[in-house]
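Support request from a user on the community tier.

User writes: "When I paste my structure tokens into the form, the page sometimes reloads and wipes my input. The last time it worked, I copied everything first. Here is what I submitted, just in case something in the input itself triggers the reload:"
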């Protein structure tokens, strides 16, 4: 009995021990499973959080890209054209500068023209050197009357062309943009500048046929455009070289001083403009001599037949040095005039042109 009881008691104790061990093991496994689940959940949450952050960052990047790209593109395109108000201000500034220079330095232009028009080294106006300084303001009012629309046409063509090409061509070709813009402005203004130049040079040299009506009666409408080819040969390179030289010099100077071109002062612009004008004036003097001879030629027996014929006759009859006749007053006039022109131009722009144009 005892044995059975003992045996029975031993079996019961063993079963209890086994049950307790299994429970503890099960509980441990449960805790381990819970920890693993918690760890997995935490890792999953971190992964989800990281993925969410990446998604947000990608979205932010996407948003930034989609908002900035069109804005930059539109901004670049809008800068290719000039607003009407800005273009008007630039044109008015150019007219003010042109009228100022034409009036102030007109006597030097008259002396230069008389020296160029004289055959065989004489003075001008048909009376030798005695007439060189007489009536140096002859034709000024007629010149101003033509200067206003001619200068306006120049800047109406020059500024938009320069603006467009500067933003179309690569930066290293900036000089080409300004050169092309200067030539375009010259072509546009030549419609008015040539007739004005014909009337002005004839008034300066005392030519009998110098009024608008007189020229029309004597030669018709073609009389107002005599020497048009020589004018373009002279002024196309002149305007292109002078303006591109000035603009490039201003950009280089401003960069050297650590400033922007718009911060160049009037005095600095005057010096830069005078330098550009003087260099250009000397280089183009032979073309100016030919232009003057053609515009003042009223000979009916053996008239000049064009640029080549005029240049050939000058060299054959007067020597090659005659092509540089009037070079000193021309360089002086254009140097002073160029300095004054660009100085007044920059000052006028501060008045008539909106800021940050």
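"...and here is what came back when it finally went through:"
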């Amino acid at each position: 009995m005892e044995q059975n009881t003992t045996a029975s008691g031993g079996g019961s104790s063993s079963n209890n021990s086994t049950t307790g061990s299994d429970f503890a093991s099960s509980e441990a496994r449960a805790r381990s499973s819970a920890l693993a689940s918690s760890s997995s959940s935490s890792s999953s949450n971190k992964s989800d959080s990281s993925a969410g952050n990446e998604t947000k960052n990608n979205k932010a990047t996407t948003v930034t890209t989609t908002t900035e790209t069109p804005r930059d593109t539109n901004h670049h395109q809008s800068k290719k054209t000039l607003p009407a108000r800005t273009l008007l201000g630039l044109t008015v500034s150019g007219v003010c500068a042109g009228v100022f220079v034409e009036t102030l330095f007109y006597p030097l232009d008259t002396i230069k023209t008389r020296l160029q028009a004289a055959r065989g080294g004489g003075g001008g106006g048909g009376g030798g050197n005695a007439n060189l300084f007489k009536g140096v303001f002859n034709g000024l009012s007629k010149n101003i009357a033509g200067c206003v629309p001619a200068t306006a046409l120049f800047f109406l063509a020059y500024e938009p062309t320069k603006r467009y090409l500067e933003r179309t061509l690569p930066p290293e070709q900036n000089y080409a943009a300004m050169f092309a813009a200067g030539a375009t402005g010259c072509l546009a203004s030549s419609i008015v500048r040539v007739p004005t130049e014909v009337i002005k040079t004839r008034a300066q040299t005392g030519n009998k046929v110098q009024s608008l009506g007189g020229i029309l009666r004597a030669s018709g409408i073609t009389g107002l455009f005599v020497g048009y080819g020589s004018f373009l040969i002279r002024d196309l390179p002149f305007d292109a070289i002078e303006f591109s030289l000035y603009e490039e010099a201003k950009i280089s100077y401003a960069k050297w001083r650590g400033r922007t071109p718009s911060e160049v002062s009037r005095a600095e612009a005057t010096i830069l403009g005078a330098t550009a004008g003087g260099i250009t004036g000397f280089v183009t003097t032979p073309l100016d001599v030919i232009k003057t001879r053609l515009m003042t030629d009223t000979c009916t027996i053996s008239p000049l037949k064009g640029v080549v014929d005029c240049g050939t006759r000058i060299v054959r009859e007067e020597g090659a040095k005659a092509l540089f006749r009037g070079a000193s007053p021309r360089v002086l006039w254009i140097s002073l005039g160029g300095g004054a022109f660009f100085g007044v131009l920059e000052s006028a722009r501060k008045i008539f042109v909106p800021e940050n144009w």
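Agent notes: The reload is a front-end session timeout and is unrelated to the input. The chain has two domains: 12-78, 84-352. The chain has eleven helices and no strands. Escalated to web team.
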